[in-house]
C-alpha cells in the first residue's frame, strides 16, 4: 500500500500520469472518492501517462469511453449511474477488463461482483483541516 499526499491538483495529475506510464495491459484500476475530490484530474493524468493526447472527461452518461491513441487502449468507466450490474454485460465489459488495454473504473463499488480478484484500488480523500486542495491518495494492490 502506498499513501501519497497531494497539495494541489497538479500533484494528483502527476500521480495519475506516473501510474499511467507504468500500467500494463489487462490492468484494472478502481478509482474511488466522493464527488469533487479530483477523480477526473487523476484520470486526465493517467491518460497522459498512456500517451493519450485527446481531451479526457468523465463518461457519466455513456458509462464508458474508449481512447485508442496511446500506447495501450484505455477504457474509462464511470458506473455512477448504472442501474443494475447486468448493464455491464450489454456494454461488453469483459472485452475491456480482459483485453489488451488498461481499464479505469470510477465508482467501482457499484459493480464489485464482476470485478476480477486482482485490481489496483486508488482512493482519493479530502481533509479540509489540511487545506482546500489537500488530498490523501491511497494506492493498494500494486
Record the SSE blueprint.
Blueprint: E1 2-6, H1 9-22, E2 28-32, H2 39-49, E3 64-67, E4 74-78, H3 87-91, H4 93-97, E5 102-106, E6 120-126, E7 135-140
Helix pairs in contact: 1-2
Average pLDDT taken over every residue: 95
End-to-end distance: 8 Å
Kindly report the CATH topology: Rossmann fold
Strand content: 25-35%
Strand order of the largest sheet: 1-7-6-2-5-4-3
If classified by CATH, what would the architecture be? 3-Layer(aba) Sandwich
Mind telling me the CATH superfamily name?
P-loop containing nucleotide triphosphate hydrolases
Question: What does it look like?
Answer:
The protein has 142 residues and is an alpha/beta fold. The protein has helices at 9-22, 39-49, 87-91, 93-97, and strands at residues 2-6, 28-32, 64-67, 74-78, 102-106, 120-126, 135-140. Strands 1-7-6-2-5-4-3 form a seven-stranded mixed β-sheet, covered by helices on one side. The radius of gyration is 14 Å and the shape is globular. It is found in: Cytoplasm. InterPro entries: P-loop_NTPase (IPR027417), T6A_TsaE (IPR003442). It comes from Lacrimispora xylanisolvens.
Amino acid at each position: 500500500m502506498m499513501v501519497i499526499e497531494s497539495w494541489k491538483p497538479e500533484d494528483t495529475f502527476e500521480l495519475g500520469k506516473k501510474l499511467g506510464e507504468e500500467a500494463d495491459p489487462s490492468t484494472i484500476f478502481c478509482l474511488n472518492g466522493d464527488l469533487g475530490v479530483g477523480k477526473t484530474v487523476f484520470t486526465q493524468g493517467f491518460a497522459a501517462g498512456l500517451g493519450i493526447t485527446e481531451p479526457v472527461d468523465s463518461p457519466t452518461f455513456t458509462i464508458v469511453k474508449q481512447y485508442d491513441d496511446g500506447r495501450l487502449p484505455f477504457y474509462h468507466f464511470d458506473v455512477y449511474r448504472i442501474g443494475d450490474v447486468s448493464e455491464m454485460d450489454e456494454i461488453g465489459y469483459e472485452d475491456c477488463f480482459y483485453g489488451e488495454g488498461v481499464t479505469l473504473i470510477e465508482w467501482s463499488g457499484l459493480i464489485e461482483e464482476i470485478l476480477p480478484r486482482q485490481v489496483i484500488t486508488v482512493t482519493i480523500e479530502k481533509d479540509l483541516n489540511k487545506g482546500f486542495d489537500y488530498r490523501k491518495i491511497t494506492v493498494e494492490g500494486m
